[in-house]
Specification:
The chain is mainly alpha-helical and 65 residues long. The protein has a domain of 29 residues. The chain has two helices and no strands. Helix 1 crosses helix 2. It is extended and about 40 Å long. The relative contact order is 0.09.
Length: 65
């Protein structure tokens, strides 16, 4: 994890936290929330780059029915 860590007091949905802990196979709520935020921000970067190149390339469906 990179970046400056800051302490925050916020209300979060406990069901979402519990699911994130299982999904990411982490032990703490803090790790689950940080991992979820990391994924969201990385995904946003990918979407923004895709928009910048004008959507060239599209998305290929690689799942065979």
């Amino acid at each position: 994890m990179s970046g400056k860590l800051v302490k925050k007091t916020i209300l979060l949905n406990q069901d979402h936290i519990n699911k994130a802990i299982k999904m990411f196979n982490v032990k703490t709520e803090k790790d689950a929330v940080n991992k979820a935020l990391e994924i969201v921000t990385e995904e946003a970067d990918i979407i923004n780059v895709h928009k910048e190149i004008g959507g060239v390339g599209g998305v290929e469906d690689v799942v065979k029915s």
